[in-house]
Write a structure and sequence with these properties.
alpha/beta, 434 Repressor (Amino-terminal Domain), six-stranded mixed beta sheet, Endonuclease, Chain A, 2 domains
Length: about 280
């Protein structure tokens, strides 16, 4: 075929996406013009996606799924787009973030690290750089991860922000990330957030021992219709749970955890003591 550009699917996720569009199109005997008519884009746009000159979008991916009868399947283009867009995130987490943006109440429990919604940019960058040093993500993916977190934080600054209730295991305050200056600023950030009317910040002290309700981080979202969505993750993946029978016990356990944790005033006192000891 004249002027046919050979593709290297391994060169980038966008190239792999484009190569698959071309492969499925040609398998059906369609020209770029025919596919363009089916997805509602120009043939030039289809060509640019196939050759990775233009990145795919969510609307294009959904139209391609309709054209290739892949909607809702594990091989859907929407799924591939989401993996490209959120490839640095655990499976299930992008779905959770979609609910988070609509929540009227957010309940968080975290072990070891400051919860993402409370992290300073420097703290978040230090964590991402640590993953780059270990080889688990690329520098570009680290940039995406930090930017993604900043977007989540910005979404909470609207005119009607959700109520955010946070219980941090005491280990979050002692796990040094990014050096003394980064930790000092991070602890200062916690104190500032605790003064906001839509935030409740509590520390779960080491002393509660076996009375601590959770051994893994847990997020609980209350939506406008008062339904509750839960999210928990392991080292390898995250999972969103919407069934009331599964979520209700987690909500009860969270309330029990809050009862065992320090009050917000006591928690801020502990944080301030650590700040005084931070150079």
């Amino acid at each position: 075929m004249v002027n046919r550009k050979e593709l290297n699917p391994e060169s980038s996720p966008e190239a792999a996406y484009g190569a698959r569009v071309r492969r499925l199109r040609e398998k059906r005997g369609w020209s770029q013009e025919e596919l363009a008519g089916r997805v509602g884009y120009s043939s030039q746009h289809v060509s640019a996606v196939e050759t990775a000159r233009k990145p795919p979008t969510l609307p294009f991916s959904r139209k391609a799924d309709l054209a290739f009868s892949a909607t809702g399947t594990t091989a859907s283009f929407e799924r591939e787009w989401r993996e490209m867009r959120h490839g640095v995130l655990l499976e299930g987490f992008p779905e959770y973030v979609g609910y988070e943006s609509r929540a009227v109440e957010i309940r968080l429990f975290q072990i070891g690290l400051i919860p993402g919604l409370l992290q300073t940019p420097e703290y978040a960058r230090a964590l991402a750089d640590g993953d780059v040093w270990r080889g688990s993500i690329t520098p570009e993916q680290a940039d995406e991860r930090v930017a993604f977190l900043a977007g989540r934080q910005a979404a909470l600054a609207g005119p009607r922000p959700p109520m955010v209730l946070v219980v941090m295991d005491e280990s979050c305050l002692h796990h040094a990330v990014g050096g003394p200056e980064v930790m000092a600023a991070q602890l200062q950030r916690l104190v500032e957030v605790a003064s906001l009317p839509n935030w409740l910040l509590q520390v779960s002290p080491f002393e509660i021992g076996a009375r601590r309700s959770f051994n893994l981080p847990v997020n609980l979202l209350t939506l406008a219709d008062r339904s509750v969505v839960a999210y928990a993750e392991s080292q390898a993946q995250g999972h969103v749970e919407r069934e009331t029978a599964s979520v209700a016990p987690l909500l009860t356990a969270y309330h029990q955890l809050q009862a065992e944790a320090l009050s917000q005033a006591e928690s801020v006192g502990v944080i301030n003591q650590l700040r005084k000891g931070t150079p």
